[in-house]
Design brief:
With about 350 residues, this protein is of the alpha/beta class. Among the domains are: about 160 residues, Trna Endonuclease, Chain: A, domain 1; about 70 residues, no CATH class. It is about 75% helix and about 5% strand. The protein contains eight helices and five strands; from the N terminus they run ααβββααβααβαα. It has a five-stranded mixed beta sheet with strand order 1-2-3-4-5. Strand 2 and strand 3 form a beta hairpin. Helix 2 runs parallel beside helix 7 and helix 3 runs antiparallel to helix 4.
Amino acid sequence: MDMLSLFIALLALALVVGALLVVRAGQSKSHDLAQSLAGRLAQMGEAQATAQAQINMTLEQRLDAVSKRIGDDLIQDREKTSKTMSELHERLAVINAAQQKITTLSEQVVGLQDILSNKQARGAFGEVQLNDLVSSMMPPSAYTFQATLSNNKRADCLLTLPNPPGSIVIDAKFPLESYHGLRNAASDGARVQAGRAFSADVLKHVKDISEKYIIPGQTAESALMFLPSEAVYAELHANFPEVVEKSFKHRVWIVSPTTLMATLHTIRAVLKDATMHEQTGLIQAEVLKLLEDVGRMDQRVVNLEGHFNLAVKDIREIRISSEKVTKRGVRIEDMQLGEEATDEAIEPPRLVPLPGGKE
């Protein structure tokens, strides 16, 4: 074997030995690394178990808090729901009562419509309202319902007033049909026609009142036409001023419930003033008698004062006599005792002042 082959063999042997040493060293490091990795994995497992336990505890606490909050909310919601349902039942009861009242009112409105659709019943409705207003505002002696005049015409109400102005007639009229035709007119032409019918209806009532209830020498120079509806009165004065002017010319004053009440207030004041004037003479006579009574009472007081003065004088004289008797008694007593006494030695009794500052 030559030197080159020997060198190659030795080199190969050295490489094999080095490879074996490297393999041995790698196995040792791998074992240490495995042990270190196992320790770290164990630590990580313990840390993970601890974290998991903490997470589980936190989750349980939060679940308990959430459950308690949900339970409290459910209790509050149940209480609120119960209260709301109770209030709802109360409101439903109120609504039910209101519904019954509305039903009753609807029936009454239907009945009122039936009444107003009949001319005779409508006239009676106006008369009843007129009676209520007059009887509540005026004294019984100042009015008469269904009064018969000298022309045999019967007025709904006759107000008895002194002259001037004299008795005033109030007659109730209710042109409801023509008013409804005016309100329900769908076109301008229909409204114009309905307005003419309404004007003619009102003016007919005005003319009838002027001819029947204004009697010279018995009634006043004017009369009142009572409209028992504020709506009809407002429509008349707002859109039919020419009808109102014609009623003035016929000396018929159109009034509604509100304006009639104001008129009755004024009439009542006039009646009160007239009554005061009638009673003025009687009041003056009573005042003169009162003055005479006061004069007699004053003279009697003077006489009584004189009697008191005489009584005071008599009492004064009686006291003087009593003092003299007392002095004489003292002297007699001194003489019986054998003592000499003079008028100067005897001390007179002390006098009590009388009224008026005299003794």
